[in-house]
Design goal:
Layout (H helix, E strand, L loop, with lengths): L7 H14 L6 H11 L6 H18 L9 H10 L4 H19 L26 H10 L2 H13 L3 H5 L10 E5 L6 E5 L2 H11 L20 H16 L24 H7 L7 E3 L7 E3 L17 H4 L3
Parallel strand pairs: 2-4
Antiparallel strand pairs: 1-2, 3-4
């Protein structure tokens, strides 16, 4: 098969990956290579990045082993030696995915050795973000991150959903979009604060853009780009001043901590009919009703409802 000159480098790279993937699939190294060539490209870009990082550590330990020789006690030892961390759990989940793939392609004829290990559950994250912390970080963040924080708080969206919101998702009823993992439609109904946030966001430059949260060129943030901006704001809040002043905030929090998805988060930030709830309708997507937050009439900074701290406290 002939290739055009300008296509030759890419074609050779693709051929090399294919040949490596078609090598004897008796070791985990070969199984991972085959999985990377055939299955990983089907995943979201963020998932691909995470998986490749997890595969690096798995290759160091299990890469030369034949998949048939990997036993449950090897995986348990790996879990213990890695400190029983969240990252170790992710790596074992990646290993399980690859070994299931090995069964499908005939390289493993026994049960997945990851099954039934029952790794101890870690302590769930319970970072309580106060009103003051939210307002502080929001005031230090650049404009697009501020709006993203508002959307996370009002509508309970994760940063991946927020980054991919487009004008076409704005409907008369609310924000209608597809869930990234399931592909199912979800509707977040308008309330005064959500509508005010979106209208203000649309007025941000550049106004002629497809994505709501965008960089100066009107392009959507990548996961890394968004995280860089978030960590920059968090650094301003938690790092000492240039002249040795104490940090403005003692403990960092993640963007995910802003989402009011637990009863504690709901009672902190929402009151009355503002509590987020969902119900299935006979026709159409699940509907999420957004919470009510008081916005100061004289300041662009959010002023959280005083009832949220007292009524449910």
């Amino acid at each position: 098969m002939a290739f055009a000159c300008e296509d030759l480098p890419g074609a050779l790279t693709a051929l090399a990956v294919r040949l490596q993937a078609e090598a004897p699939v008796d070791t985990l190294e070969h199984i991972i290579s085959k999985y990377e060539a055939e299955e990983l490209p089907k995943k979201a870009l963020k998932a691909q990045t995470g998986r490749r990082q997890e595969f690096k550590n798995l290759r160091k330990v299990f890469g030369a082993m034949r998949v048939i020789d990997i036993k449950p006690h090897h995986i348990w030892t790996y879990w213990r030696d890695r400190g029983e961390t969240v990252q170790a759990r992710h790596e074992i989940r990646a290993l399980s995915t690859v070994l299931t793939f090995a069964r499908r392609c005939g390289a493993l004829s026994v049960e997945n050795p990851c099954f039934g290990l029952r790794l101890p559950q870690g302590t769930p994250r319970r970072r309580y973000v106060t009103d003051q912390e939210f307002l502080l970080v929001r005031g230090l963040a650049q404009p697009m991150i501020r709006y993203a924080m508002e959307l996370a708080l009002i509508a309970g969206m994760d940063n991946g959903t927020i980054r991919l919101l487009e004008r076409r998702h704005l409907t008369e009823a609310g924000i209608l979009f597809e869930r990234r993992k399931t592909g199912t439609l979800q509707l977040i109904e308008w309330n005064e604060d959500l509508r005010a946030t979106v209208e203000a966001l649309k007025r941000e430059a550049p106004q002629l853009r497809r994505f709501l949260i965008a960089n100066r060129r009107g392009k959507p943030y990548t996961a890394d780009g968004f995280e860089t901006q978030w960590q920059r704001a968090m650094g301003h809040a938690t790092n000492p001043g240039k002249k040795g002043e104490p940090p403005l905030m003692a403990e960092r929090f993640t963007f995910h901590d802003l989402r009011p998805v637990t009863p504690e988060r709901k009672s902190l930030f929402f009151c009355g009919e503002g509590e987020i709830r969902t119900h299935e309708t006979r026709k159409g997507p699940p509907v999420f009703k957004t919470g009510a937050i008081n916005r100061s009439a004289t300041s662009p900074v959010f002023s959280l409802s005083p009832q949220s701290a007292g009524e449910y406290g």
